[in-house]
Amino acid sequence: MTTISSDFSVATALHRCPVPRNTRFCRGCRVVHLPSYSWKVRSATGDQLQYQGSSIIPIVSLSAADFSQVIFPEHPGIYAVYNTTMEIQYIGISRKISSSVKLHKYEMPRYCGFLRFAAIPRATKADLQLLWKQWMQEHLAVSGGLLPPGNVRGNSQWSRRKHLPPKINILLTNGVNSQVNDSTVFQLCREIVESYNIVAFIKGTRKEPECGFSYRVCAILEELSVDFETVDTLDERHNHNLRNVLKDFSDWPTIPQVYYRGSLLGGHDIIEDLYKSGQLKHILVPGSTAEAA
């Protein structure tokens, strides 16, 4: 795991600009480095401050492969989200950056390519609002007054689903009966995949998958806007020995596994290939045509 730390005082964070300039992506450390020259930013009081580019906030890759290996700070702060072509999409305030980033990436993966953030462990609400205003002013100065799409009034994509409770995993048992055996779990798997249209057996939850492949499968299904259920194969209390039983049930060695109308559709690699070719949408969304992603 890679721990990303950009923890600052309020005064220091106010000097950090969210607008990338002549970025250069480094595949070795998975961040975008900026040139070492300086530029000026305006503080809340209107004073001109000189910012030296030798101490910058890195732009972190949010690709599926990289995202699962990064541990973001669990502090309050400000963050800016960019798409894969480095166009800024949203500037937000968060009481816990890690949760906000995971939610955005989970709900809108197509808009989340890179991230820049400033974490301030002891920030007050006023501190965060001041820093957010500073970052927004910096963006407006270089965008000709255009707001990031996610900050435009009436655009609810970045906030509309935050008020809805996350869909929870299906539990095979109540976790109390210690007499559950493998044959019972096998039968429960059959009942689950036949009772729901789409079922994904993953590691973790849909909101916080415990592996990159599970994360990617959930992200693909979410992007297609299909209704699906999840079962956590790591939950030994409620899903006794499910990882081993599932291998026999599906005759498939790996997890995640996606089922459609009672039959195994595939693991991560097959789901990824079907998605890229457009066939997955054609299969899961009635009336749609196969268009390559």
Entry summary:
The chain is α+β, with helices and mostly antiparallel strands and 293 residues long. The chain contains nine helices and 14 strands.
Task: Give your account of this protein's structure.
The protein folds into 2 domains: 2-162, no CATH class; 182-284, Glutaredoxin, CATH 3.40.30. Helix content is 30%, strand content 20%. The protein is built from 9 helices and 14 strands. The strands form 4 sheets. The protein has a 6-stranded antiparallel β-sheet with strand order 2-3-6-10-8-9, with helices on both faces. Strands 12-11-13-14 form a 4-stranded mixed β-sheet, sandwiched between helices. Strand 13 (257-260) and strand 14 form a beta hairpin. The longest helix is centred in the middle third of the chain and has 19 residues, at 125-143.
- Share of helix, binned: 25-40%
Parts with pLDDT < 50 across at least 5 consecutive residues: 2-17, 20-56
Q: Describe the biggest sheet?
A: 6 strands, antiparallel
What's the order of the H and E elements?
EHEEEEEHEEEHEHHEHEHEEHH
* Side-by-side strand order of the widest sheet: 2-3-6-10-8-9
Number of helices: 9
- Helix/strand-derived category reads alpha+beta
Task: Tell me the β content.
Answer: 15-25%
Would you tell me the overall average pLDDT? Answer: 77
Task: Tell how many strands the DSSP assignment holds.
Answer: 14
Count of domain modules = 2
Family: Belongs to the glutaredoxin family. CGFS subfamily.
Domain Glutaredoxin: 199-263
InterPro entries: Glutaredoxin, Monothiol_GRX-rel, Thioredoxin-like_sf
Pfam families: Glutaredoxin (PF00462)
